[in-house]
Design a protein that fits this description.
Distance between the termini: 58 Å
InterPro entries: DUF2442
Number of domains: 1
CATH architecture: 2-Layer Sandwich
Number of strands: 6
Largest sheet: 3 strands, antiparallel
CATH class: Alpha Beta
Strand order of the largest sheet: 1-2-3
Protein name: DUF2442 domain-containing protein
Radius of gyration: 22 Å
Strand content: 15-25%
CATH topology: NE0471 N-terminal domain-like
Organism: Bosea massiliensis
Length: about 130
């Protein structure tokens, strides 16, 4: 190996040490059917729990499927192999519960009489107005 390769490896190892100390890492994870939440014990002694509906791909999972949670990547990810779902623990804890597309899709699914009425009214006006050009 070259000196440059050794330096890159040393840098990567140091970055991993910093991430391991700074970012939340799971040491245990389970599904608690009584509360309907996935509970995660963290390396720093804290505990984090969240409802499965917040994670993309877990919304319709059964209790048995949710109980099959596994920890990967040094505790930074939770995975459900049979569902083919993997979520980032730091992202979950930072309330980033999925991709922007997933969040937009969930927001677009919201229905109410007011939303339906507004859509009808806007449609009768010819649709969305054009953006002004400068």
């Amino acid at each position: 190996m070259t000196d440059q390769s050794d330096a890159l490896i040393d840098t990567a190892i140091e970055r991993m040490r910093q991430d391991m100390a700074r970012e939340p890492r799971a040491v245990a994870a389970s599904y608690d059917a009584a509360s309907g939440r996935i509970s995660v014990d963290l390396a720093n002694g804290c505990m984090f729990a969240f409802p499965p509906r917040l994670a993309p791909g877990l919304e319709q999972a059964s209790a048995e499927q949710l109980a099959a949670v596994q920890i990967e990547q040094f505790g930074f990810r939770l995975t459900w192999p049979t569902l083919r779902v993997t979520v980032s623990l730091p992202d979950l804890m930072a309330a980033r519960f999925g991709t922007t597309a997933h969040l937009a899709r969930r927001a677009g699914q919201a229905t109410s009489p007011a939303k339906a009425s507004a859509a009808r009214a806007n449609g009768s006006k010819g649709g969305r107005p054009r953006r002004p050009t400068s």
